[in-house]
Write a structure and sequence with these properties.
The complex is a heterodimer of chains A (about 240) and B (about 400).
Chain A: H1 2-54, H2 57-61, H3 63-69, H4 77-105, H5 108-147, H6 153-175, H7 181-205, H8 207-223, H9 225-231
Helix pairs in contact in A: 1-4, 4-5, 5-6, 6-7
Chain B: E1 4-7, E2 22-26, H1 32-40, E3 49-55, E4 72-78, H2 80-83, H3 93-105, E5 110-114, H4 123-135, E6 140-145, H5 153-167, E7 179-182, H6 186-194, H7 205-211, E8 216-221, H8 234-251, H9 253-256, E9 266-268, H10 286-298, H11 300-303, H12 309-319, H13 330-346, H14 351-372, H15 379-392, H16 394-402
Parallel strand pairs in B: 1-4, 2-3, 2-5, 3-4, 6-8, 8-9
Antiparallel strand pairs in B: 5-7, 6-7
Classes of the chains: A mainly alpha (about 240), B alpha/beta (about 400).
């Protein structure tokens, strides 16, 4: 009996190892494709950056430059273009590698998992863009509200940030088809709740504060707008 | 009365280009009738004078063949950029380029650029600007306006001190809209304003003169310009004026890091007597101080991306001062300006946000200046103190510029 148990176990182990060994060429092909395309992307990104810098691409964009780099201030347009080229080739490498892995594995599970990779990439892009947008918008609202002398500038800024983040999370989950209707409902309730809360807190809870703030601004503006401008000339 | 000849349409070059001694360029859209009226009263003293002003393309006016015997000509040049200018009082690079090119093509001995509000478009003011160019061999004549304590605050706070500290020239109005240029300096200035990078900014004549080692002088002008930025909100103003200054600082970094100290600039003309000054009432400093305090409470996180901890601490202490003792130290303000210039270069955050976040700090400086106005020290002496402090803090900027990571907050 023990011989039969041992024989069964060793057969199972041999099947598992054989299955794993059959996947190895696909894994190797995937890794090779990703590394190769990453190297190509790195080289092309370097070339693109050098060419754009030599053509004074940033300066020639003029005012358009500011619109582009407002969203990602640490990068010049040439730098952004180079990064875009690099990550595009990395994405192509992943796609090619996944295709090579699928061709060599003949497994339905592997095929299903590989079909899911583009959704994951899309979800990652949505998350990244959403975070950038949330950070930019919240900072814009904060600075704008402070310069308008609004005492509740930070509250507004946080509200905007979380609205965008919640929307981003809902879009991401919807894209990867997780939850689906449940996520849609939850997002609707949460989003509507945030908006309603903001409206109630501003309209009811802090109406005295808002009315005092508005009165102060109105009286300051009405008191001597021309006189104040005449007294102070910034340029 | 000087003979005036009018050439109303200029599509391309004139059919003939008579020699002209002096070109007067107006940097924005003007009332052509008013220009001709002033030109007709001009006492040219035998000089050939050409007045050039931009017009919107498509103006349907007749042209006349120019007569070389006329003393004064008025020329309209079609410039597309002038029609879309949101702040014509700032002057557009395309307009400057056309005016300077016109002066160069006419072989003028000097070119006078004037604000389109025509306040300086008088024989006395033009002669005052041109005299140092023609007689003292200066290359650039900048104006000295008769200004009150609360006039040109951005100029007092940022433009003049930064220009003095970085470029070593004590020019009081580096972004003046009225100035004169010699024939020697014309090609260099035109080249500077025509470069692709210049299209994003403003023309800084004093800076360009320093870059090209040209002689600069200042002339007292009995001119009062209306406050053209009325109704414009402060963050927009900072973006339109301080942004291009910081861009200019970034562009010329290799030059100003080598300059040490500063030199006075020759002044000429009659300075306004104290009796001529308009009596001023001090504005209420409370809104400015409150704006600064609101900024300190809400924007500290944003400021922490730009300013080092020491500066943030000083600003926090300042925000807790009562109104009577609210004084922003000159050294603190100088370091703040330099840190923001560096952040503009490093793109630590978006440039629009950067200049918007600077507004409460600037208002804090203005509030402090208003509260100091009661002291006996004159405006000129106080400004001299501030600019000297900017000079003394230049090594701070140079260190941070060269090794930004070392001081990263």
């Amino acid at each position: 009996m023990w011989n039969e148990v041992g024989s069964t176990l060793s057969n199972s182990m041999a099947q598992a190892m054989g299955r794993f060994a059959s996947l190895l060429p696909g894994i190797l092909a995937f890794l090779l494709a990703v590394v190769l395309f990453s190297l190509i992307g790195w080289g092309l990104a370097w070339i693109v950056r050098r060419v754009l810098v030599s053509l004074h691409f940033d300066e020639k964009l003029g005012r358009g430059t500011e619109a582009v780099t407002e969203w990602s201030p640490r990068q010049t347009p040439a730098g952004l273009a180079a990064r875009l080229v690099f990550w595009a080739f990395v994405a192509i490498g992943i796609a090619v590698g996944a295709d090579a892995f699928n061709a060599s594995s003949h497994s339905a599970i592997a095929a299903g998992l590989l079909a899911y990779i583009p959704k994951l990439i899309g979800a990652a892009i949505i998350l990244l863009v959403g975070n950038i947008v949330a950070r930019f918008l919240s900072r814009s609202v904060l600075i704008g509200a402070v310069n308008m002398n609004l005492q509740y500038a930070r509250l507004l800024s946080l509200g905007v940030k979380w609205l965008v983040l919640v929307m981003t999370a809902a879009m991401t989950l919807d894209h990867v088809q997780v939850g689906e209707q449940i996520v849609d409902l939850a997002f609707g309730i949460l989003f509507g709740g945030i908006v309603l809360s903001l409206a109630l807190s501003v309209g009811l809870g802090s109406r005295d504060l808002v009315s005092r703030s508005i009165e102060r601004e109105t009286s300051r503006a009405a008191a001597s707008p021309a006189q104040e401008e005449e007294q102070l000339r910034h340029f | 009365m000087a003979k005036v000849e009018v050439e109303l349409v200029a599509r391309g070059q004139s059919q003939s280009t008579p020699q002209t001694e002096l070109v007067v360029g107006l940097t924005g859209l003007v009332d052509a009738g008013q220009v001709r009226a002033v030109a007709a009263q001009w006492n040219g003293s035998g000089r050939h004078l050409t007045i050039v002003h931009p017009c919107v393309p498509g103006m349907n006016e007749t042209s006349e063949t120019p007569d070389p015997s006329k003393d004064v000509r008025v020329v309209a040049r079609e410039i597309t950029a002038v029609a879309g200018a949101t702040a014509p009082w700032l002057g557009q690079p395309a307009v400057y380029a056309v005016l300077l090119a016109e002066a160069e093509s006419l072989g003028a001995n000097a070119c006078v650029i004037l604000n389109p509000d025509l306040a300086a478009f008088t024989p006395a003011a033009v002669d005052a600007l041109v005299l140092p160019i023609l007689e003292s061999e200066s290359d650039l004549a900048m104006p000295l306006y008769r200004a009150g304590r609360f006039d040109g605050l951005l100029n007092q706070a940022i433009l003049a001190p930064v220009t003095r500290a970085l470029y070593g020239k004590r020019v009081r109005y580096p972004l003046a809209q009225d100035f004169a240029v010699s024939a020697r300096f014309l090609p260099g200035l035109r080249q500077a304003i025509s470069a692709p990078v210049a299209g994003q900014g403003l023309l800084w004549p004093a800076t360009e003169a320093v870059l090209r080692e040209k002689k600069v002088c200042q002339v007292y002008l009995p001119v009062h310009h209306e406050y053209a930025a009325a109704g414009m909100d402060l963050p927009t103003l900072l973006q339109q004026i301080v942004g291009p200054l910081f861009a200019d600082v970034d562009r010329n970094a290799s030059l100003w890091q080598r300059i040490r100290g500063s030199h006075p600039v020759t002044e000429s003309g009659a300075e306004a007597t104290p009796g001529d000054a308009v009596a001023e009432t001090s504005p209420d400093p409370r809104p400015m101080v409150e704006a600064f305090q609101l900024g300190q409470r809400n924007l500290e996180e944003v400021w922490s991306l730009v300013l080092p901890p020491v500066t943030l601490l000083e600003l926090k202490k300042l925000s807790r001062q009562p109104l009577e003792s609210f004084r922003m130290a000159d050294a603190l303000w100088a370091r703040v300006v330099f840190d923001f210039a560096l952040a503009y270069r490093l793109r630590t955050l978006s440039r629009g946000h950067l200049l918007g976040a600077m507004a409460p700090l600037y208002l804090g400086w203005v509030g402090s200046r208003v509260l100091e106005a009661e002291s006996a020290i004159s405006t000129g002496a106080r400004q001299e103190q501030l600019e000297r402090v900017f000079e003394q803090n230049k090594p701070y900027l140079v260190q941070r510029w060269r090794w930004p990571d070392r001081f990263n907050p």
